[in-house]
Design brief:
6-stranded antiparallel β-barrel, 3 helices, 236 residues, lipopolysaccharide transport protein A fold, elongated, mainly beta
Length: 236
């Protein structure tokens, strides 16, 4: 069951594909970006790239239909078929969205889905693949806060969590899943499990797991089934 907590460590990584350092952002301006059309508004310190927007170097790759940089406000926006990736240290982090917005002054941002597809963030390591699906992803690096809403699904190779909303406070390490009834499913060589509750709370620093509000489910270990009535004792 400890492998479940590897799933929640993915939340540490998701905001980094949406925000970059000031040095990284400076590389995404001017002639470094390829597009069908490039508009410079000198008075307002704006640059807009329209049509087949493309940027790529050894680490980052960015694709979009449009990109808008407002240097005075220090805001950056990508819209339409947005794809962003970071490849570094044998890991790959990718983002697909309809719109991505980042405010560098506030160090906050969000990614929105389209009507056809959700926001998708995938983090691939040599050991595992972590995937987050949601209608909207919001983050604040200064507040160490991350939030995903709307038909959220968080999964790795062995575990899947479904909820309407998940939040993560990096300072405290508290992860929380909210929904009508968020549900978690998983399976590995030792067995399988299912857990349903009103709220699922995980402290990623201490490893403490808590399901609140009529938790129920099952767990199989070595061909034995622990049913709903015994699940609470096992969890504690």
């Amino acid at each position: 069951m400890k492998k479940i907590f590897l799933l929640f460590t993915f939340i540490f990584l998701a905001p980094f594909v949406l925000s970059q350092t000031e040095q990284d952002l400076s590389m995404l301006l001017g002639g470094m970006v390829k597009s069908d059309k490039w508009i410079i508004r000198k008075d307002s310190f704006e640059e807009e790239f329209i049509g087949n927007v493309h940027y790529e170097n050894e680490i980052y790759k960015v694709l979009a239909d449009k990109a808008l940089s407002k240097r005075k406000d220090k805001t950056y926006e990508l819209s339409g078929n947005v794809f962003a990736s970071r490849t570094e240290d044998n890991t790959v982090l990718t983002l697909n969205a309809n719109r991505v917005f980042y405010n560098q002054k506030k160090d906050t941002g969000f990614a929105n889905s389209s009507k056809k597809a959700q926001v998708k963030i995938i983090y691939t390591t040599p050991e595992n693949v972590y995937t987050l699906l949601a209608n909207k992803v919001e983050f604040s690096n200064k507040a160490n806060f991350f939030k995903a809403t709307g038909k959220v699904q968080l999964s790795d190779k062995e575990n899947t969590l479904k909820a309407e909303e998940i939040t993560f406070d990096r300072a405290s390490g508290i992860f929380e899943a909210l929904s009508v009834r968020p549900i978690m499913l998983g399976k590995n060589k030792d067995g399988s499990y299912a857990l349903e509750a009103d709220r699922i709370i995980v402290n990623t620093k201490t490893g403490k797991f808590n399901a609140k509000g009529s938790p129920q489910g099952w767990l199989t270990l070595e061909k034995d089934v622990i049913a709903q009535k015994n699940f609470k004792k096992l969890k504690e």
